[in-house]
Amino acid sequence: GWDRLQGATPPPFPSPLEGGEYTYTQDGGGQDGYPYQTDYPQQDDDAASDATEGADEDDQMYEGEYQGIPHPDEIKMARRAARLEAKRKARLAEQQEEEESLPEQYESIMEDCGHGRFQWMLFFVLGLALMADGVDGFVVGFVLPSAEKDMCISNADKGLLGLLVYVAMMVGALVWGGLCDKMGRRKCLIYVLTIDLVFSFLSCFAQGYGFFLFLRICSGFGIGGSIPIVYTYFTEFLQMDKRGEHLSWLCMFWMLGGLYASFTAWGIIPHYGWGFAIGTQFQIHSWRVFILVCLFPALAALIGVVFMPESPRFLLEVRVQLKPPEILKQVTNIKTPQTEEDEFIEIQSDTGTAFQRWTVRKMTMLQQVMANVMSLSAPELRLQGLFLVIVWFCMAFSYHGLGVWFPDMIKYMQYEEYESKVKVFHRERVERFHFNFSLVNQIHREGEYIHDKFANIEIKSVKFEDSLFENCYFEDVRSTNTFFENCTFKNTIFYNTDLWQEKFKDCRLENTTFLHPKKGCHLNFQEENDIVIYMVSFLGSLAVLPGNILSALFMDKIGRIRIIGGSMLASSACTFLLLLSFSQGAVICWQCLFYAVSVAAWNGLEVISVELYPSSKRGTAFGILNGICKFAAILASFIFAVFIGITKIIPIFLAFAALVCGGLVALKLPETREKILS
């Protein structure tokens, strides 16, 4: 019936001017111009009249419904719906075509902009932000040997401080990476640097361990988001043929951060007297001055970012309609407008209080960020995301694990060398003698000291065992790692010393007096050779310079995948040389070689991580990858530190296996050298 209805055409109406009346046809014609089928059986008019007698007009049924023929009104509605659907599909196709052409259009605009003064200004500003992150990675480790004495920090508390700061940086990378895809790169970077500056500055004046720990955690949460934002931000101002090279040059600023921190720590912290006093109780010692000096890169970066524009790619992503000439202007003058979605949220919550509106905005943004995170598991992103996670984890595990192992191994060798030079005195008898010189690295067993005086001296790494002190006088004595075990003291006076009761183990005190003991922490601290540690960190940071330069020059020539895979496999070969590290000099040499070779893999990873993802997910994905990097670093620092002084084989094997695994997986990643950012 539908086919006949579609195929039949009604005959033309006779014109009243020509014939005067309508006529009926017997073959296909019908009343009112509708056709009828000639082979229908004859209908009895009386029967039809009887059948419909007494029926209301509303109850009448369209006769064609019995034969499955649609009503003419249904036909009109179907045709109207078909036309609307066709228009909708045409609009979607046009919109999709525009979106597909937008990346190429943007790339053409970036090529027209070229790489000029603006890109170099942005390069240095974002480089300072990256440098601030590099500095913060060294600050806690450098200040702890001095801060532990001022704030009486135990070894367990030191480990907790380092752990929680790194956890805060990991959380910061995850949070700020997701937020920069919704709030904007520039805006989030300003927040990140401000948080780091404020809480780092306050930590300089913290007197207690708890307050210092809280402030450093907040600072770590802020600066932890700088790396995902910086690389995402700078990438979106670069044209394709210069992207890899200039992102690699940007990586050098992290190295400069390490050099800056090592050099300033080397020059400031050992001079404990460099500082000033506020009142009578509050002392600003050299390690606090060092923290203040380390704020300069973050402060300079914050001032610079304030004058930088928002990324045009981000503005296009949030539906700001920009024409190509307008995008060119964004390079020098841009402001982030409010998006339609933000306006909808404001309108929706107009009747609430200010707090309710703020809550709605933040909850909506949180939902958007979580939806963005979940979208990373889409089929087209799932496999490459899994490969990137494996490579990032393997690289961070080996790099940061060995980064902990190198200085700890040097400290252990120093300790062994120090122990080998210890002087042992057995059953010595010293009577009426004035000790006015320092005692260093000695063991005194079963000695007798009668009427002796110990005045204005330093006792460092000295142990007295089973000895007798009778009628002795200790005055103005400073001690480090010094203990008295199973000793007897008779008629002895301790005046203005730091020989507290904790340093006397199983000792018998007879008529012994402690007068005016020195104030300070009663914990025992190991004296460390800080100068060597600063030098090791400085050389390790400097060693990455050749690798940075080479990776920048060849990143766009041989591709990201070859650089990542080749660097990781070459670094795995370097780990075997660590088996030959029998001296401090050898460890330092192999450390520098490993850093120089492995830095190319880091540069390639950071470049490919921002190129594989679209603008709407770039910051979120990089934040997750950087968070995984921090997690691997935390895990490796615990595992590698356990084997210090036990064996070198297990840490070296773990680093080798991780590098080989990551290098082979990296070869499966897609090459992005000629990819236009979406």
From TrEMBL:
Residues 122-673 form the Major facilitator superfamily (MFS) profile domain. PROSITE patterns: MFS. Residues 1-74 are annotated as: Disordered. Belongs to the major facilitator superfamily. Residues 42-62 have a biased composition (Acidic residues). One of its GO terms (biological process) is neurotransmitter transport. Pfam families: LD_SV2 (PF23894), MFS_1 (PF07690), Sugar_tr (PF00083). The chain crosses the membrane at residues 120-147, 159-176, 188-208, 214-234, 246-269, 289-309, 385-406, 531-554, 561-582, 588-608, 620-643, 649-667. One of its GO terms (molecular function) is transmembrane transporter activity. The lineage of its organism: Eukaryota, Metazoa, Chordata, Craniata, Vertebrata. It is found in: Cytoplasmic vesicle, Secretory vesicle, Synaptic vesicle membrane. SUPFAM superfamilies: MFS general substrate transporter, Pentapeptide repeat-like. It is a multi-pass membrane protein. Keywords: Cytoplasmic vesicle, Glycoprotein, Membrane, Neurotransmitter transport, Phosphoprotein, Synapse, Transmembrane, Transmembrane helix, Transport. This is Synaptic vesicle glycoprotein 2Ba. It comes from the Eukaryota. Its main location: membrane. One of its GO terms (cellular component) is synaptic vesicle membrane.
